[in-house]
């Protein structure tokens, strides 16, 4: 199997939610090098679909436990947290925040992950319960001052560990 095909297989397994296959492929030489037409890599697509075990498997195979992956962006400058939050995956969003994902990161249009949650809720693509749960997940990370511009790493003083 070619290296490029193996990278695409990692992406497809992540999209399907197959954590065991993702782990096996990464351990056998696969990488996160494949990007789809939107610039999404395996961890972005897994977060979009709420595959928390896949995201954790990917992070576990990196030397920095996923820190660099938290800040990697798609063509729209979206980070993995943008996808988890916007699609209502509360537990995954909490996990990413605990890992140190930046809740103030802005996409290409200036939206933070919580802004995408609000937009999705306003379009009736999220229930009241989902909206409140995501807001609660982000509450400990709210800043009083104006958020910084760009993708500056954010590390909370105390990790958020609720399930």
Radius of gyration (CA) equals 15 Å
Helix vs. strand class: mainly alpha
| 3D shape | elongated
The CATH homologous superfamily of the largest domain: Ankyrin repeat-containing domain
- Overall residue-averaged pLDDT value: 85
Largest sheet: number of strands, sense, barrel closure:
none
Q: Might you state the CATH topology name of the largest domain?
A: Serine Threonine Protein Phosphatase 5, Tetratricopeptide repeat
Q: What level of helicity do the residues show?
A: 40-55%
User: Span between N and C termini?
Assistant: 39 Å
Top keywords for this entry?
elongated, Serine Threonine Protein Phosphatase 5, Tetratricopeptide repeat, 163 residues, mainly alpha, disordered C terminus, 9 helices
Architecture overview:
The chain is built from nine helices and no strands. The protein is an all-alpha fold and 163 residues long. The chain has two domains: 1-61, Serine Threonine Protein Phosphatase 5, Tetratricopeptide repeat (Alpha Horseshoe), CATH 1.25.40.20; 79-163, Serine Threonine Protein Phosphatase 5, Tetratricopeptide repeat (Alpha Horseshoe), CATH 1.25.40.20. Helix 1 (3-16) packs parallel to helix 3.
